[in-house]
TrEMBL record:
Residues annotated to bind Mg(2+): N145, D207
Any one Gene Ontology molecular-function term assigned to this protein's record: phosphotransferase activity, for other substituted phosphate groups
Protein name: UDP-N-acetylmuramyl pentapeptide phosphotransferase/UDP-N-acetylglucosamine-1-phosphate transferase
Transmembrane segments: 62-91, 103-121, 127-146, 153-173, 179-196, 203-226, 232-255, 276-300, 306-326
Keywords: Cell membrane, Magnesium, Membrane, Metal-binding, Transferase, Transmembrane, Transmembrane helix
InterPro entries membership: Glycosyl_transferase_4
CC per GO annotation: plasma membrane
Membrane topology (UniProt): Multi-pass membrane protein
Gene Ontology BP terms: cell wall macromolecule biosynthetic process; cell wall organization; lipopolysaccharide biosynthetic process
Highest taxon listed in the record's lineage: Bacteria
Subcellular localization, as worded in the UniProt entry: Cell membrane
Transmembrane in keyword set: yes
Main subcellular location: membrane
Length: 344
């Protein structure tokens, strides 16, 4: 079908889908702002753990999710289960954004979406492998929500991450045009959202957006591996900055016996913003790191498995060193604040 629509120029088709998604998403969000409906749907009120200082509507998902879901159903019907699950999660999360839901209800929705998707699209591997992959997808769903706390960050990660997926789906071991179109739609919608979310943000993503994006990052990554477009490590490599930040922060909080599900300001990106790098500077640095990781991942797709895994391991080391640098900057910042407080 896609070949009939776009002929041999699938790259052009991917670009058209991305551009259309960006325009439609931006138009939806602009309408929500102009009509004042954005504040009535869901508003983020600053608290002592926030990085922002004024009430801001968190309705980015209202633009991104419908565009991504409809585009997927139209351009990539084989991925209908991912689209339906993302829409389901967005609906549940919007209720949470608006009224609040118990953690057990939210988590149950995540499990239903992930397990339902995997059951409908099983891989020919042992059951325990599917169980592990399902757990990792659940972690992606939640970590994307954890990492949605600075202007332009989560939206930019979606733009680069799903854009990387789209390219990999066309140049990987087995070309998957429908997957490329679905990923391009999500990346394009993220660009439309970023027009309103880059610092100073006029709109936040909200749980309806972040939870759905986390699910799609895992589901489309799984689909690409299932179809032979890329190896199992590629989704990790693409979203590595998000995954490493959230995972290390969670591990630290667990080791300290803290309630990891409670809001806090201990992520690397939060420390960067608070220590003077700022929202725009932090987002820009993260974009550069993510773009670098994606380009490295794409460049080694044709190499041997041994080379691929060595590069992945090396990239984990590089990201860990970057994290150590952020920790060092944070300690110096805290020390300076302590000295100034003592002088006063």
């Amino acid at each position: 079908m896609l070949m009939q629509v776009f002929g041999n120029s699938l790259w052009t088709g991917v670009g058209v889908v991305a551009a259309a998604a960006a325009v439609v998403c931006a138009a939806i969000l602009l309408a929500l702002l102009k009509t004042g409906l954005a504040w009535r749907l869901a508003t983020d009120i600053p608290n002592d753990r926030s990085l922002h200082v004024r009430p801001t509507p968190r309705v980015g998902g209202w633009g991104m999710v419908p565009v991504s879901v409809i585009a997927t159903l139209l351009m990539a019907p084989s991925l209908w289960s991912a689209a339906v699950a993302a829409a389901f999660l967005a609906a549940v999360s919007q209720i949470d954004d608006r009224r609040g839901l118990p953690a057990r209800v939210r988590f149950a929705a995540h499990v239903i979406a992930v397990v339902g998707f995997v059951v409908l699209n099983p891989a020919p591997v042992p059951w325990w492998v599917l169980a592990v992959l399902s757990f990792l997808m659940l972690w992606l769903v939640n970590l994307y929500n954890f990492m949605d706390g600075a202007d332009g960050l989560a939206g930019g990660m979606a733009l680069f991450g799903f854009g990387g997926y789209a390219v990999a789906a066309l140049i990987g071991g087995h070309s998957m045009p429908e997957l490329a179109m679905a990923c391009a739609a999500v990346a394009g919608a993220a660009l439309g959202f970023l027009l309103f979310n880059f610092h100073p943000a006029r709109i936040f993503l909200g749980d309806a957006g972040s939870i759905s994006l986390g699910f799609l990052a895992g589901a489309l990554g799984y689909w690409g591996w299932l179809g032979g477009a890329w190896p199992i490590w590629l989704p990790f490599m693409v979203f590595a900055p998000f995954i490493t930040d959230a995972s290390i922060t969670l591990a630290r909080r667990l080791l300290r016996g803290e309630k990891f599900w409670q809001a806090h300001r201990e992520h690397y990106y939060q420390r960067m913003v608070r220590s003077g790098v700022g929202h725009a500077g932090t987002a820009s640095l993260w974009y550069a790191v993510m773009a670098t990781g994606i380009m490295i991942a794409l460049s080694i797709l044709g190499r041997s498995a041994a080379v691929q895994w060595c590069v992945v391991a090396a990239w984990i080391v590089v990201l860990s060193l970057m994290g150590a640098a952020v920790d060092l900057r944070w300690r110096r910042f805290q020390s300076t604040l302590s000295e100034q407080s003592t002088e006063v």
